[in-house]
Amino acid sequence: MATVRDRVKDIVEFFRALFASVPRTSRTLRRSPGFVAIATLSLGIALGLSTSVFALIDAMTHPESPYRDVDQLFEVRVFGSAKIRPSSKQLAEGLKGINGIEGMSSVGLSFADVDAGQTVARQTFGYTPPGFFALLGAPTRIGRLPTTADGLAESIAIVSDDFWKARFANRKQIGDAQLSVSGHVYTIVGVMPPRANSPLGAMFWIPVAADTSRGFGIPIVRLKRGVTLKDVQPGFNAIMKRFTAVFGSPNDRPFAGAFVAMRPNPLALKDVHRAMIGAAICVLIIACANVAALMLARATVRRRDYALRLALGASRMDIAREVIFEVAALAMIGSIAGAVVATWAVGLIKGASPLEMRWMGFPEPQWSVRVLGASLFSVMTAIAVAGGIPAWQASRTDPAGTLKESSGGTTGRAGTRFRWLVMAELALSMTLLVGASLMLKSSVLMSRYDFGFDAKSLINADVYVNRFKNDDTLRAKQDLVDMYRHGLERLRSLEGVSSAAMIAQCVFDHTAVTTDRTIEGGKASTAPSCSNVSTDYFRTMSREITEGRDFEPGDAAGEGAVILDQKTARKLFPHESAVGRMLKLGGLASKQPWVHIVGVVKDKFQGFNPFPEISADSSEVMFISAPDSSRETHHYVVRPVAAQTGMRLKIARTLFALLPPNSYVRTVPWTQSYDDSLTEERFLALVFSLLGIASLVLGAAGLFSVISYIAGLRMREFALRIALGATRENVVRLVLTEALIMALGGTAVGAGFGMWAGFMLWDKMYGVYPVDATALIGAEVTLLIVTMVACLGPAVRAMKANPVE
User: Fold this and answer.
1) pLDDT over 90 percentage in the chain
2) What is the pLDDT of residues 85-104, one digit of tens each?
3) Tens digit of pLDDT for each residue in 245-274?
4) In the predicted structure, residue 774 carries a pLDDT above the cut 80
5) Percent helix, strand and coil across the chain, each to the nearest 5
């Protein structure tokens, strides 16, 4: 009982002392507005940026679902090899009979041509019966959910967040937005929140009547609260056994099923994500060190005050508590500033991360209890780190010694005790600046990438025809060949098309190319990169024929013809012309036909090279015009006339009108992979630049504060030097030398850590090695210039020291 009473008494005493110290802390801080401003802004910037990074990482590791009680939601999958399968109605009736299932709905997935916004493409979408969205329990982000009347009309659609952003530029109002599915127009009435793409990545949903003839192939069930999969699994297994007995045969695989959770899967952290976390922590450490250095300097100035209070009976705990309370007050004010910075930074990251970044492992940042908890932990850590050492030093003040000291200035090197702290700040700042410099250089190099021709206006159309589902339409390979050729003719006849060509894969017999030199004693070559192209390919791609001729319409009618690039021609036929010679796509014993080489094309790397340290002509390339073009996958490349708009939509509609059902068309800029990589590179450069700039500002502020404190203590020394004949320039040099020593020490240590940390970003960098002299020198010069400029104020003040005063 006594122990409990003592603990309660200690707690009451603590809070009494806390409230009693509030007026004193407030008065003390009001006397030092500059100190308060630097300390709170340092903590605010650090807390805000670190919180925004925590929000981004939290969205990856703990993706939030918009569905109500998502852990109780499951998709139901059924597997079996029986030719006759149970109907959706039979499966639904069986699921409804399982004890523990609160509700059930279903969705019928389809794949069709979808015309929306300025794009037409094949999309996955779902037909949903009444009650589907109520079962999910997710509100719309924009607009409304369907009603029963809407479902009966079958004229509206609910779209996913991804679909809305990709097709309608994420506009704020739905307005008159519509989409067309195979010619049927639907009015969009609602946009679902992010991550509401289940099941199976549906991009939008069309509500239909309950008695529709469409089958709903994917049931969705919601378990009752407190019910787990172990509770419902026996009943589900019984259904599968009944289906096996009714529909299966002895040679069929038994029916089996699985409940698939609808909670989004977390993304795995990679080195670049760990580098972000490390950078955010470094910024926070710099801010804490900054505040700690300020508090140490402040404690040194107030030593006489602390000594006098100790002599008058105050305890050392009272002194330490006062320092901790001051830091806590600064942290609270800094948290308010940090909330503003975090809101701004999260909005900036959201705006800078397009839809494609999600598939690269960078979702939109999200606020959560975990993020707030991490921020609170950061605040408490900042208070402990920034206040612990100054509080300990202040509590160790010797009343007898301190009160004997002069109250004036000192000529000693009073800042020596803070030098290591400032150097540590600048070392961390240098580390982050090197990382930011590497990413900025990578981004600039990638943005300046030269394809060697006008690649920006080219359009690539990928086509896939599922022959297994189109046997009635495509009964022979020749039907597929004719269809592809007809598609090329249609594209070339489109208004606004300058030229177009068709590309397919070459057919090799093993990975070898045999030339007629092999018969003469030459060596067979490994298979180079090969494309089966149509006429007009080189004109469309703006490639120059340096020797021989281009492909002609009759080349593909016979055995075919080959054009090599200069690199491949030199390798296969050294010291002689390749034109007129022959090769086959296989070994010497291969049954592949011999094909004549009719030309040589100038070396140009035709795609985005992610490794520019490898020379552009190091890859061997050959082109063939051959009769085999019956593969399911083909590509068209189209060069529009200058200043044409809407060509991707025209091309897609033209191909969709020609292709059979269950086909796929994707029209994208020819530089799509390059554009996606550049977007990711710029996003990473933005994030690391924000962290690097914050570390630079905080490091400079810390150096400024300490140099100001040192210069203030040495004013009598400076005045005495001036009285003895020193020039004011000598005084400025003394102050700047003190700052330069700390800055050089920090950059020397930080440069090594920066290059080491650069290897964590290496797989995301383009054309930059982590040990990069340009990035390193740029970071060092930037840090030295900023820190020297920050110390000009204290140097000028020291220069004005008056010997008379």
Assistant:
1) 3
2) 777 778 888 888 888 888 88
3) 888 777 778 888 888 888 888 888 888 888
4) yes
5) 50, 15, 30
Q: Is 394 exposed, middle or buried (0-12, 13-18, 19+ CB in 10 A)?
A: buried
Judged by DSSP in three states, 182 sits in coil
pLDDT confidence of residue 191: 92
Backbone angles phi, psi at 99, to 5 degrees: -70, 130
> Cα angle at 578 between 573 and 584, to 5 degrees?
80
The DSSP bridge partners found for residue 502 are 636
Residue 54's nearest CA partner among 268, 354, 369 is 369
Q: Which token pair is 769?
A: 């090695």
Average pLDDT over residues 271-286: 86
Under the banding of pLDDT at 50, 70 and 90, the label for residue 412 is very low
Structure tokens at 381: 């850590």
The alpha helices in 120-249, defined as continuous H runs, are 132-136, 148-153, 161-168, 229-247
Residue 179's closest CA among 200, 199, 203, 197?
203
Grouping H, G, I as helix, E, B as strand and the rest as coil, residue 203 is: coil
Phi, psi (deg, nearest 5) at residue 73: -100, 135
Burial pattern 741-753, b for ≥16 Cβ within 10 A else e, equals ebbbbbbebbbeb
Tokens 């800029």 correspond to 669
SS3 19: helix
pLDDT at 7 over 70: no
- For residue 139, how many other CB atoms are within 10 A of its CB? 14
Point out which residues pair with 256 in neighbouring strands: 79
Task: Write the pLDDT tens digit of every residue in 351-384.
Answer: 777 666 666 667 778 887 888 888 888 778 777 7
- Angle between the N-to-C axes of helices 316-352 and 369-395, in degrees from 0 to 180, rounded to the nearest 10: 150
Burial (Cβ within 10 Å: 0-12, 13-18, ≥19) of residue 178: middle
Q: Is 70 exceeded by the pLDDT of residue 31?
A: no
Q: Among candidates 180, 672, 721, 210, which has minimal Cα distance to 458?
A: 672
* CA torsion angle 705 709 711 716 (round to 10): 170
CB 716 within 8 A of CB 408: yes
SS3 805: coil
Q: What is the dihedral of CA 729, 732, 736, 738, to 10 degrees?
A: 110
Helix (H/G/I), strand (E/B), else coil: 70: helix
Give the β-pairing of 633-640 and 459-465.
Answer: antiparallel
- Rg of the chain, C-alpha, whole Å: 36
Residue 219: φ, ψ to 5°: -75, 150
What is the structure's pLDDT at 406? 46
Of residues 577, 561, 558, the one with CA closest to residue 569: 577
Q: How much is the average pLDDT of 265-288?
A: 85
Each residue of 552-602: pLDDT tens digit?
888 877 778 899 888 888 888 888 888 989 888 887 777 888 888 999 988
Is the Cα dihedral 666, 668, 671, 677 positive or negative? negative
Token pair in block for residue 768? 């930059």
Residue type, 756: W
pLDDT digits (tens, 9 = 90+) for 465-506: 765 554 455 455 667 778 888 888 899 988 888 899 988 878
Residue for token pair 């529909």: 247
Scanning the structure block, which residue is given the tokens 């607009």? 143
Distance CA 707, CA 795 (A): 8
Query: Which is it for the CA torsion 293, 296, 300, 304, positive or negative?
Result: positive
pLDDT of residue 611: 39
Give me the mean pLDDT over the 631-647 stretch.
79
CA 387 to CA 289: how far, in whole Å?
A: 10
Residue at 519: amino acid letter:
I
User: Which amino acid is it at 131?
Assistant: G
Looking at the chain, the whole-number percentage of residues with pLDDT higher than 70 is 80
Which H/E stretch holds residue 401?
A: helix 399-404
